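All the exercises in this workshop are built on plain-text protein records. Sequence and backbone structure share a record, each on its own labelled line. The question running through the whole workshop is how a given chain folds. The record below serves as our worked example for the rest of this section.
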Amino acid sequence: MADSASMWLCSVCGYVHHGSSAPVCCPVCGAPSNDFAPHENLQPEAPKPLGKWRCLNCSYIHQGDAPPEICPVCAAPADRFEAITDKPQSTGAEEFTGRLVVIGAGVAGVSAVEAFRDAAPNATATLVSREPELPYYRLNLTRYLAGEIAESELPIHDADWFEANNIELKLGADVADIQLDAQSVLLGDDSAIPYDKLIITMGAHPFMPPFPGSTLEGVLSVRTVRDAKWILNFLRPGMRCVVVGGGVLGLETAGALAARDAKVTLLESFGWLMPRQLNQRAGEILQAHVKGLGVDVRNGARTKELIGDERVAGVLLEDGETIDADLVIVATGVRPNSHLARRAGLVVNKGVVVDNHLVSSHPLVYAAGDVAEHQGVLYGSWAASQFQGSIAGMNAAGSAAQFGGIPRSNTLKALGLDMLSIGRFEPEDGSYQVIETEADSGYYRFVFRDEHLAGSVLVGDTSLSGAVKNAIENRTDFSSDLLAGISAGAFISRLRR
């Protein structure tokens, strides 16, 4: 990397560093300096410190004197955490002592108040949650459904943490209106919370396709603790369950139900599982793994109607087949909860439109997570929500940290199978070159354009994830390897060096 560059983009979390060289490690996610690449056309920033330990598997940031015994997000052991030792320098600006309100207590909202409290220890912070439970790891709902963790293990922090950090937590509170002129958040009980800065992290809601029967009893999505509890109370061994949607949530839900001895059928409308993240061969490998867990997978299965009187009794497919069902879980994606922002007059496209500082069209209002649209992108991922929440919290406290976007990659752990999908995993035309191989340890696919690595899919063995990401982000020149006709096995060895 050239020392002449003045801006550096973290390829893991999108944080932008200003200086003649990359930082020792990223202050947001802890990534080392070699995960930074030169970046242009962004404005100065003043980052604040956050976190102490980073999970190497899923990038979860843990605050504490030691790493957790098990990562609460991906269940990685303590030895898969690395210490975050470098802290950014203070800007010297006057400390913010005003009032922050954060609407939404998912990972983006919690990350926002964590970062805000670190940067502004004497300011007022209020976190508003529609749900009555303590803020929890939504990603762990399927693990809870499978019986892998108890309900008590779901919260991100216990109640004492919020009290110790002087963060007012309003649970079970519906927000009725955002009043931009009055700088106030109006709750459903007609009480109002004034703010000097506002962060919207309202997340998203499940998308329910408009097929007939979607309102029958026994048809639901898995989005909240209450959804998971309802399923557990209703579920019985041998019960016929149909999951509509072969994405990550659908897969993990199907696996959880199968672990509870239900008879599970998974419907995917495409020709293989996870078509947005995996090529066909990788999807086939994943499908074989899922079938081994006791899930019947149907590809090319398009739902026409959910049938039943008051309660669902089956799923009618477009080809005329009917699959009997006592329970139907719909996992067909989410849509941002942008209604309050729209009504308040903020600019909303697919989500609340934000700039590189995660500021909305109103200078005192930020947005982060599933509800935020940055440069036309709705990330919809846990990692992006955490990183955006942290940066929004830092900026609400007076920093000028920037989010430069993160690589369009998916590091997944679905039902015990590790996977990485990054960049272009299918060639667009004849200018692309693909090398791939399968071994006992996994499946490896590398897609090149010209002399550069354009994308990759790894299934089973994801130990090359860091090397692959760096090669793509840094546009490493592989022209000599490609001219020599390098094999996939030899290329794997080259990346391991």
